[in-house]
Amino acid sequence: MIPYDRQALADYLGVERSAMSAEISKLKKAGRIDCSGSRFRVLTPDKESS
After folding, report:
1. How many domains does the chain have?
2. Is the pTM of this model over 0.85?
């Protein structure tokens, strides 16, 4: 869990919110992360698909 909303996280990282959100979406679609609100979970990749 992170203590930031999307805009605050983007500000903290020094990136544009829209670009950060696009990258988060790509990671989610790729099955690398699971996220909901301020909760992020890094997923372990399948050994067969790597």
Report:
1. 1
2. no
Residue 12 inside a domain? The answer is: yes
Those residues with Cβ within 8 angstroms of residue 24's Cβ, 6 or more apart along the chain or in another chain:
33, 35
Q: Is 6 in contact with 21 (CB distance < 8 Å)?
A: yes
Tens of each residue's pLDDT in the chain, 50 residues:
999 999 999 999 999 999 999 999 999 999 999 999 889 999 987 765 54
48 is a domain residue: no
Domain that holds residue 21: 6-42
Cβ neighbourhood burial of 27 (10 Å; 0-12, 13-18, 19+) = middle
DSSP code for 24: H
